[in-house]
Amino acid sequence: MPQSGRIERIEVFNFKSYKGEQTIGPFHKFSAVIGPNGAGKSNLMDAVSFVLGVKTKQLRGTRLRDLVYRVEGDQMEGTEEERAWVQLVFLHGPEGEERELVFRREITPAGSSEYSINGKVVSWDAYDARLQKFGILVKARNFLVFQGDVESIASKSPKELTALIESISGSDQLSEEYDRLADDKNKAEENTIFNFQKRKGISAEKKQYKEQKEEAERFNELVKTQRDVLLEYMLFQFFHIEKNLSKDRKLVENGNKQLEDLDKSRDDVEKRFKKMKARQAKSHQKTLDLEKQLRQKERELRKKSPDLIKNQEEIAHITQRLESSVKSAKKQQADFDEQRNEINALETELDEVRKKASDFEAQVQEREAQEKLVLSEEQQEEYNNRKQEAGRETAPIKQELEGLIRQQRLDSEMRDTSEAKLRDLQARKKHLAETEEQYERRYSKVQEFIDQTEAKKRELEEELASVSAANKAASEQQEKLMAQLEDIHEQLNEAKVDIRSDQREIRFREALESMKRIFPGVIGRMVDLVEPQARQYHVAVSVVLGRNMEAIVVDDAKTAEECINYLKEQRVGTATFLPLSSLKVKPIHERLRNQLATSKSAKLIIDLLKFDSRIQKAVLYAVGNTVYCDTLDEAKTLAFDRAQPLRTVSKNGTLIRKSGLMTGGPGIGAKAKKWDEKKVEGLKKKRDKYITELQEVGRTLRGVTREQQLTSQTQGLQGRLDNFKIDLGLTKDKLTRTREERESVEAEIETLEEQLARLTKAIEAREATIAAQTARIHEIEDEQFRAFSEQVGVTNIRDYEEKREAWEKEKAEKRLMLGNQISLLENQLKYEQNRDVETSLNNLKQRIKDDKAALKELEKSIKVLQKEENKEKKETDELKRQRDEAKKEVESLEGELQDIKKKLNGLIEQAGKQHKHLTALETEMDQLRMRRHNLYQRCKVDNIALPQLTEEGAEEIPSLGVEFPSEEMELATQDVREMTEKEDDINLDFSKLSKKLQTIPKDEEGRVKQELEQKLQGINLAMQKMAPNLRATDHFNEVETRLRTTEDEFEDARTRAKEAAERFAAKKQERYDTFMKAYNHIAENIDTIYKALTRSTSHVGGTAFLNLENPDEPYLHGIKYNAMPPLKRFRDIEQLSGGERTVAALALLFAIHSYQPSPFFVLDEVDAALDNHNIAKVVRYIRSRVEDDDLQCIVISLKDTFYSRADALVGIYRDQDLDCSGTVTLSLEDYPDGKTDETY
């Protein structure tokens, strides 16, 4: 409990307007300080504040020397006169035993403060502690109210009220420890979450490696199975190769023996053949000589008879033409006979139709007589008269109606024809479209097949040659990537960037990316969307953006709310959101931009940024019309020396607001590094990309090339490719023709549809007119034929006419049909009769006759020429006879030679067959050996251990992967044969091969081999799909160890987090209790005090109350103060009148003072805004406090209604002679009337 006491007097020396040493007082329990403006009343307030330790800046000065009295023009700096002091004489102790306690604060010549108590110099802490014992809290200023504080209290924001109560309660002393413990708690929780996520990640990694381990075990089983099947596959081939080789060896031995016997017989026959051949050569030479003479004679004969040759050629030509004419004549004769038959058939059919027409006319007369369709003469006359009369009346209508009907019939027929044609065209169009679609699909499919086949062919052709090139390229790529990776590491090191990014930043970025995926309206962070045009602007731009630098730009407020909920659910943290749709921004001042154009460096910040136009609104909201300057001086000039101040920022980051407030400092460069972090982030992405590519290159270098079956596959693909290209060309031609035809049909359909639309519209319009006209005609006819209709026995004349008309129509249609048939047959008969086939046949016969005559004349000419040749021929015949005799001799010898040759050829043929058979056997054996050799090579390459394969044999297996030049081919083939024959000595153990596979017939070997290959392919396919991690077991064990370590770390972090939370909760509770103790006291008393200040005879007073914005942590949020004057509706305190706000503020001040009351309360002109009515109420309340609560009140006032009710007056005046303030004191206790209460 603070000690009680009061101010007895104030002693000052050279303080402000008080010159020399002066004593002010004594002060009573309720003293009023009065005096004219400028006399020094507030300086008395400052003296009390000064001696009680209030800071200089709150005393209307910037430094202590400003508080020292001096006459204008005096120069006392550093002299003895440059000192001042204020001394407060404080009475404390029980009444009657009061003791003086002197508090003194002095301004030394050095310009510093010196504190003393009862003349003893003490430190400020000791001085302050002594004041606190009396309830005088300097920091909270619970003992005084400066001029204007009442208005400031009334206008304080909720947060400012909270800060005031924190200061009063002392909970602000706990804020630093509270923030530290809160930070420790958050860090511990983040560490716990981090370790939890780490444990979760390692658990997932463990699960992954467990699956990989199981997959690796399955893969190893498949590898074992693959080796067993592969061994069986190899042994099967080796066994049957050896079996076939053994069989072929026996056949070769027998064939060689037979070949030796044939060679011996052939040598004997060849000797006989040579002797006979020499005799035949002499006879043949003689024949050749005679042939030469004969040919010479024949050449001479041909030179003498060119006309004979010409005639012979002419005969050949005419003969050929004659044969062609005879064929044509036969064909035309057949056409002529067919024409005569057609004419006879048409004449017969025409007679039959004419007979049908005659029979129909007879039937007509018979039916008309039976059905009485013909009227009697009287009836007919009556009918004609009535018809004539009706006709006269309806003639104009009928004439118009007939025209309409005729036109309607023509249009209907045209419409029907057009509709039928349209249906045909549409069906044709549909068919063509389907056909075109089929051709397009076929064209695309064939083209696809061609592309695929060409691609596959190129792939097969290039694969073998490209393997080494690919490896070389991969190696070069690896070196290049390593160099690039090293360069990136150097850049990261230069940027002094920690490779391990902050976990909170990583989580926030991940959350941002997730929000972009989930909510389409999320655009991104401002720092990622905006970039300065040059590095020199980084600091300035980051300062201007401020907290908006990390703000997230979204399309509207709804998206922002969804993102905020998402961040809360994910517990990632908080963020500022800028919804573009609801941002209110001022446009850019174009006039300002034009004015800045003349400056060298001054530019609008927004003009220095690069960003997408869609976020311009957000950027303008963040930077506004802020101006950038290179220097601080230029920034100050633009900010202060203009009629309208500007918000400016300098290159070094100093921001000058329009209010004149300047901000900046050494820490502003930290945010600017965000731009560098963007660059670093790009380097990290490149680094990760190069590492991934490096791994891919490593896998490429470890790849195994394929070298088999390329040639045969390429040839097969080429054949398919040729067929596809032929098919493609045919399909393209068909597609082009079909598309052209479809387009033509579509154009015709469009024309027809337009025509049909016009016809339909005309027919529908005409139909109504026809119906109206017909109805009018029927009315007239019914009136004319009423009596006639009754006589004939019909309802109306139209029944009779329709029946008769139907019969007439039937007759007409039948006659028309028969007439059309007769006309058609007559036209066909006329056509056949007019077709002149006979004339053409006669002309052809005449040409044949002429050719035969010409042929006879030529034959006569040839006979004449032949006679002339006979003489020459006799000589020729003699030579022929001699030649023939020589030929006979040659032929005789030839016969004998042929017999010998036949026998020799038989022997040669047998030997050739035997050679061929042996060659085939050897070729087959070479192929078998080569197959066996390739199998050995494959076994060595694939590391297949064959049972009992000798090491020596294995080492001697040569490689055939060598290409020999053409001139060395024969030698190379021999080398290969010798190499493969050596492998005959290799013995394999086939005991592991099943008997079933050993006894497979030769024709079944291919099928069994294919089955084993398919089985291997199935296993290989399964292995390729698996892609196992063969180190998964090691990784699994390593991850298990890491998981145990992480779980321990997680438990430790959770324990630390729990302890930090408990410490924070204790401090939070302490701060809460401290704050709420003061708040609850003030809240409980505020209404009572306000009622006392507003009470009157007609009303108990107004209502005042406080509300916490956050009851859980009130010191972090605002306090809402509401006051409702008597007989007034509730409204915010800002909407009250000046006097009402002053009374409300005084109520709050007195309530705050009541929590930790100081023994005295000094108030400076708190009644300035009050009327006399309210002043009386305030005075009444102060007197009640003075009398009931033992409180001393010292009030500075200019209103007599206030100070007239005080216990004493302290008058302040201006001593004009001494140019300083002076004081006088008057006690009013001897004047009771001045303190008489008024009743309100």
Task: Using brief descriptors, characterize the structure shown.
alpha/beta, Rossmann fold, 24 strands, elongated, disordered C terminus, 1240 residues, six-stranded antiparallel beta sheet, six-stranded mixed beta sheet, mitosis
Brief overview:
Keywords: Cell cycle, Cell division, Chromosome, Coiled coil, Mitosis, Nucleus. This protein has 27 helices and 24 strands.
Structural account:
The protein is an alpha/beta fold. Among the domains are: 224 residues, Rossmann fold (3-Layer(aba) Sandwich), CATH 3.40.50.300; 234 residues, no CATH class; 164 residues; 173 residues, Alpha-Beta Plaits (2-Layer Sandwich), CATH 3.30.70. The strands form six sheets. Strands 2-1-4-5-6-7 form a six-stranded antiparallel beta sheet. The protein has a six-stranded mixed beta sheet with strand order 8-21-22-3-23-24. Strands 13-15-16-17-18 form a five-stranded mixed beta sheet, with helices on both faces. Strand 21, helix 26 and strand 22 form a beta-alpha-beta unit. Helix 6 runs antiparallel to helix 18. The longest helix is centred in the N-terminal third of the chain and has 130 residues. The two termini are 37 Å apart. The C terminus is likely disordered.
Number of beta-strand segments: 24
What's the total helix number? 27
Radius of gyration: 65 Å
- Can you list the strand order of the major beta sheet? 2-1-4-5-6-7
N- and C-termini, Cα separation: 37 Å
Stretches where pLDDT falls below 50 for ≥5 residues?
A: 497-501, 702-708, 951-974, 1234-1240
Oligomer: single chain
Q: What percent of residues are in strands?
A: 5-15%
